[in-house]
Each structure stands twice: as structure tokens, then as C-alpha cells.
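Rotation project, supervised by the postdoc (A.L.). Task for the rotation student: set up a whole-complex structure prediction and record inputs and outputs verbatim in this book. Inputs entered:
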Amino acid sequence: MKVAIVGATGYGGIELIRLLRQHRHVTEISVFSSTQAEAPLTSTYPHLQDVYKGILQSMDTEELATEYDVVFLSAPPGVAATLAGNLLEGKAAIVDLSGDFRIKEPSIYEAWYGREAADATITGQAVYGLSEWNQEQISKAKIVANPGCYPTAILLGLAPAVKNNGIDMTSVIIDAKTGTTGAGKNPAPMTHFSEMNESMKIYNVNEHKHTPEIEQQLSEWSEEADAVTFTPHLVPMSRGIMATMYATCTSYSSAQEWIDVYKAAYEAHPFVRVREDGFPATKEVYGSNYCDIFLDYDARTNRLTIVSVIDNLVKGAAGQAIQNANLMNGFEETEGLEFVPIYP
Ligand SMILES: NC(=O)C1=CN([C@@H]2O[C@H](COP(=O)(O)OP(=O)(O)OC[C@H]3O[C@@H](n4cnc5c(N)ncnc54)[C@H](OP(=O)(O)O)[C@@H]3O)[C@@H](O)[C@H]2O)C=CC1
Ligand SMILES: CC(=O)N[C@@H](CCC(=O)OP(=O)(O)O)C(=O)O
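Outputs recorded:
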């Protein structure tokens, strides 16, 4: 397939290039920029010398729509909302990494994102790209809304418990930590080295934009779904998310029963590894498309503790985007993604 990347100079964009270089069905990768047209990508990213020789091109939506089989939109909020209408008229399958089309209800999007929602007909057409749980719809989609990085880790971690009606949906608390690449490549006060090094920051308490995305999916899985408490933290690492979820149990009363439920749920899904014994660390999925999960049941409190880790730039962004493009094009979902985590 011929592939185009809009926002190729960003962190999601260069991660797409790294992964797509290993994809056996990709014949061409073209890169687009709103500010650096005609420059080689190596002028921004010298580590790509002799690896990728592409020159950044200015965006032409007609060309994007007609010349490519897949267009990855890896740009800031609002860009996909502007481009998608024209792109949908062409042949390309579209995978949008931003949050523009994830939230179905425009008023909810506007309340949490503080900006105008995208055209409702396009959002209605966009399939939520949580690959493991939405494969059938993704495989028929023309446009996929790739999930946010936190919701990917959180929803994969909660899904088996929710779908088996094993937890009280009013009791869900999510405590999550992320590395700085989650904020993109542009420096900001929060991610400045001297602000975050040897420190830990809590942010957007009870107002993070991923909250409605999590709640929307939970409500599709369970009639009992309710509001969740979601608390994000920034920790001093470049990549990685660890999401820790707590919930009161309504069935199953041992850790082993819970592990069996999770093992069964993810048996057929190569990128979700339910651990045998012990909680995963973010480093154990670094640079890979894996989501590793482990859980424990506490009989004293009747609560379940679930831990889910991903690399935010891979399973949380570029990797899941390619997994979705594979499903949309009828390829093996693992194509181009079978990376062993970089360890240590
Ligand atoms: N970083 C992460 O962990 C994750 C990111 N995402 C989402 O993916 C998207 C990309 O994120 P990330 O790569 O981190 O962000 P970056 O800020 O690193 O990169 C975004 C890129 O978008 C391009 N861009 C800016 N304005 C425009 C425009 N008007 N039209 C077209 N392109 C534009 C810029 O390149 P140029 O100036 O060359 O055009 C820039 O390099 C965002 O929507 C983000 O929310 C989703 C999940 C995880
Ligand atoms: C550290 C940091 O700022 N992380 C980002 C992660 C967002 C993201 O990457 O996903 P979206 O596509 O939904 O924007 C945040 O908390 O907003």
C-alpha cells in the first residue's frame, strides 16, 4: 500500500515511519508538513539518515485522497476535522490519531475539549479504533478514530472485567502515569526537563479530555456504566503509560479466577499479554505494540486492582494506527508490528 503521513515531523509521525519501514505491504511512504515543505525529514530528525530519504511535501487534500491507499493524520486537534470531508471523497482509508472523531456526542466533545466539534456526519462514520474489541467494524471502516493513549491502556485493562459483569461500575477509579512524549514534540512548561525531572506531577484532575472517551466505550460494553474517576500523572520518563484501575467486585472471589477471565478474553489477541505472575513495568513494553496486564483480588476489601502498561507512542498511537490500517486493508493485524520490547 502507498501511505501518506500528515504531521510526519511530530512524535506520532516519526514513530509511524519507524514502524512502517518494517511493513511488508508498504511500497511507499510520503510525508506531509504544514510548515517545512521541501525540507528533507532528516533535517529535523538526523537519526533517519540512510533510513528514510523522504522530502516533506505541502498538503494537497486532493492528492492525499486520490494517490494513497492509507492516510495517517497525526496532527494537532482540529486538523483532521478540517481535512476529513475532502479526504473521504477519495479512495484512501483514513486513520486519525487525534481526538477529533472519538466522541460521538458533539456537546460532550465541546464541553471537554473546549473547541467546536467536527462535522457530526463524519464523526458518525468514524469507527472507534480500539483494535482488539472493535475488529469487525474497523475492518469495514473508511475512517477510524484511533483511541487516545490513556484510554487504550485503561480500556484494554478494564474490558474483560466490565464485559463479564464482574465489577460494580459505580466504583471504578483509574490512576494513570505517563511519560513526556505524550505531550508531543513542542516544549511546554509542564514537560520542561527541570520541571519534571526527579518529580511527579498530577494534572487535569477530574477534567482530563480522555474521561468522556473512556466513559463512552464503557457505556457501550455495560448498561450499568457510570462516571469514572480518572487521575493522570506525569512521571520523568520519555515513553510509557501505566494505568492502575481499582473496582469493587460483584463476582469472582480469587485472583486466579480473575486471571483466568482475562486470559480467556485475550487468548486470540497477540498484542495483549496477560501476565502469568506479577505486575508489568512500562519498560517491559517499551518500543513495542504490546499492552501487558496483570491483576490482583483483595479479599479484605473485595476490590480488584488491574495494572495495564503500554508504550504511548506505539500501542497508544502509531502502532495501534497501523494495526487498524492492517485490519482495514485485510492484512494480518500483526504485520509490521512484531517488535520485541527494547529492554533494559
Ligand atoms: N504523543 C502521543 O503519545 C499521542 C498523540 N496522539 C495524538 O496524535 C496527534 C499527533 O501527536 P504528536 O505527534 O505527539 O504531536 P506533535 O506535536 O509531536 O506533532 C504534531 C505534528 O502536526 C503537524 N501540524 C501542526 N499543525 C498542523 C496543521 N495545521 N496541519 C497539518 N499538520 C500540522 C506538525 O508538523 P508540521 O509543522 O511539520 O506540519 C507537528 O509535527 C495529536 O492529535 C495527539 O493528540 C494520540 C495518542 C498518543
Ligand atoms: C503528557 C501529556 O500531556 N499527555 C497527553 C496525552 C494526550 C494524547 O496523547 O492523546 P490525544 O490524542 O487524546 O491528545 C495529555 O494528557 O493530554
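Student's summary: The chain has two domains: 2-125, 150-311.
Supervisor addendum: The chain has eleven helices and 13 strands.
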